[in-house]
Design goal:
Number of domains: 3
Largest sheet: none
Strand content: under 5%
Structural class: mainly alpha
Number of helices: 11
Shape: rod-shaped
Number of strands: 0
Radius of gyration: 38 Å
Helix content: 55-70%
Keywords: Membrane, Transmembrane, Transmembrane helix
Order of helices and strands: HHHHHHHHHHH
């Protein structure tokens, strides 16, 4: 088996093939690399890939993070507007001769079950919504690469080169031409190892489009 592999490397890989075949350690390293890629491609499947995380709904998160007026109060900008609005309400109560805090007590009453948006003055409510009521669009789906783009990796190009070289070399006639019938006949008489490498190259190419 190692001798047949080294002979195939010497024939199929130009320039550096004879040097690799003459070096025992280089031949073993190349054989291990080929077997690694072969078993890695056979074991790995699309079902084993982790599913992408679901997009986060920021509108729900922002709504749950919005503070209540009766506990933590609104953020700094809204709190500042509230203080100005309450000061204005107290000033108007004093000018009208009402009791101090007449207009503010309904807003600050803990027993008041009205929503926070109804009790906050309009200016403060608009500022609060500006800070928290937002949402981001979901990320765009990943673009599907075209068929030509799928062929631009190293392993696929090597498979294409090996497949083309093998088919061409099996159909070359004595006068330098190429015959399809001769190619078919040589494919039928191909030894088991070369047939395995040829099938592996075809599998790598088909996998890119499935």
């Amino acid at each position: 088996f190692p001798m047949r592999f080294r002979a195939m490397v010497r024939e199929q890989i130009p320039v550096v093939g004879p040097r690799i075949a003459d070096n025992q350690y280089a031949s073993l390293a190349l054989m291990g690399l080929v077997l690694f890629f072969f078993f890695n491609a056979m074991i790995r499947s699309p079902a084993s890939r982790p599913a992408p995380p679901a997009p986060l709904d920021l509108s729900t998160t922002a709504a749950s993070a919005t503070p209540h007026l009766g506990t933590n109060g609104p953020p700094d900008a809204a709190r500042r507007l509230l203080m100005e609005e309450y000061y204005k309400m107290g000033f108007e109560d004093g000018q009208a001769g009402h009791e101090f805090g007449t207009s503010i007590k309904p807003v600050l009453d803990p027993a008041n079950d009205e929503p926070v948006e109804d009790s906050i003055p309009p200016a403060a409510a608009s500022s609060n919504n500006h800070n928290f009521d937002y949402d981001y669009p979901p990320p765009p789906p990943p673009q599907q690469s075209l068929g030509l783009g799928k062929l631009l990796d190293w392993s696929t190009m090597m498979s294409l080169m090996y497949l083309g070289r093998t088919i061409y070399s099996m159909g070359v006639t004595a006068d330098g031409g190429w015959d399809w019938q001769l190619t078919v006949a040589n494919l039928r008489n191909m030894d088991t190892m070369r047939m395995g490498f040829l099938a592996f190259s075809v599998y790598r190419l088909v996998k890119k489009f499935v």
